[in-house]
Amino acid sequence: MDTDGVAQMSNHRHWHILVAVCMVMWGVYFVYDVPGSLSVALQEHLSLPAPQYTYLVSALYTAYAVPNMVLPFFSGYLVQRIGEKWVFLATLQAVLVGQLIFSVSLQLRSQLGMILGRVFIGLGGEIIGVLGTEITTRWFKEKQLSLALAITLSVSRLGSVAKSAIIPVLIEDFGIVRAVWIGSILSLGVAVVGAIYLLGVRGGTLVHHESENAGTMSSVRQFPSIFWKLALICVLGYGGINTFPISAQRFLAAWFYDGDQRKAGAVTGIPYFLSGALVPVFGLFFNENSFQSYPPSLCATNILMGVAHLLLLVITKPTLPLTMLGVAYALYGVAFWAALAQCLLSTVESISAKDNMSHSWARSMNESEYGSIHPPEPPGGFPDDPEEHQPRGASAESLITLGYGIMTSLNNLSSAVIPILLAKVENVMGFTGLEVVFFILSLLGLLASLELFFSVRVPLH
């Protein structure tokens, strides 16, 4: 291959990386949402009464989320100590083993085994997401970052869409056991192919960063107040978005389709199909906008979600509110993750600027002390002042990984706690209670977004 061809491939490598990340995320999202698509077929397969089955489904999602209430927080530390490559391999293996345990346990009708399998999937699934987002941010931070993050989110959502469309059809044609095995092989096969590319690319796709203090509490204290306001928005927003699929198919089948699970499964995919299709569009829009455009968008998404959940209680066809949820999910995902990415990059830039100022100050003090007769500059430059310029913790990449990890931990905290609340509310108030909970989450999310809106005065970049 000639020199121009090699250069052209190098110029497009970041897009190849993005495709591989998307493949991994598509497979992980497919696996994550499998229990929600099994619906009544799983209840019949396990011969469980409705209340007990409700708690089991909630337990399957909670088992996934519980490890990720803590583990992603330490993702930056793990990357710093053993490198992205080994963290990536370990977490991918956990997902593969977990889905194998889940599939075998479902075949054997072992509820405990199914929960154990979900724990293993949880040990790997979310950290893979953190690493994928950090890789995308690193490769696109100076070229269309919002669009790249939007594409990743879009393809991930399409994993949930594919699950909702494929699993019910497979259950009707092959039964629940074979359906789960086929779906598992399909989704994890795609993820493994993407992972092989990421692991094989030269030039630092999965890197090892050197730092002594990565992932420590001193690094956490470097995040600005806007980061923690985004954290609250994350807990409230994804508390509703991530948990809606748990009961959506059963709710829609009971309220709108006379118990027809196949029809309900088809329309359940509407929000995720629309969010997957619209995310790139919103990504292009936000690609040219400042941080100030994100808080109004987050307000709009919570209004859309709140109105949609109210409409599901009073109308006879679910298409309109599900469409509204799809638009809201797309806008929310792009606005939130783009705002977080800009917040983290601005934090790194601010720390770097302070370090440079401190370094310049130390140099000027040395020069003023020695006057015109100062010793020659040693290799690597003058040492920094030990009191004013201590190492500030993680490298830029690991600090970004830490930020994504913290947000992922909080995301999973809400995904672990809210399903328990939903199960209790459903057993007391039925499906009506579920929609009321989702409406309240949207209302609280709107208030948090308004607080962010009024606190932002200037762009972050």
From TrEMBL:
The chain crosses the membrane at residues 15-32, 52-74, 86-106, 112-133, 145-167, 179-199, 226-246, 266-286, 298-315, 327-348, 399-422, 428-454. Its main location: membrane. Pfam families: MFS_1. The keyword Membrane applies. It is found in: Lysosome membrane. The keyword Transmembrane applies. Residues 368-392 are annotated as: Disordered. InterPro entries: MFS, MFS_trans_sf, MFSD1. Keywords: Lysosome, Membrane, Transmembrane, Transmembrane helix, Transport. It is a multi-pass membrane protein. It catalyses: L-alpha-aminoacyl-L-arginine(out) = L-alpha-aminoacyl-L-arginine(in); L-histidyl-L-alpha-amino acid(out) = L-histidyl-L-alpha-amino acid(in); L-lysyl-L-alpha-amino acid(out) = L-lysyl-L-alpha-amino acid(in); L-histidyl-glycine(out) = L-histidyl-glycine(in). PANTHER family: MAJOR FACILITATOR SUPERFAMILY DOMAIN-CONTAINING PROTEIN 1. Lysosomal dipeptide uniporter that selectively exports lysine, arginine or histidine-containing dipeptides with a net positive charge from the lysosome lumen into the cytosol. Could play a role in a specific type of protein O-glycosylation indirectly regulating macrophages migration and tissue invasion. Also essential for liver homeostasis. Belongs to the major facilitator superfamily. This is Lysosomal dipeptide transporter MFSD1. It comes from Penicillium salamii.
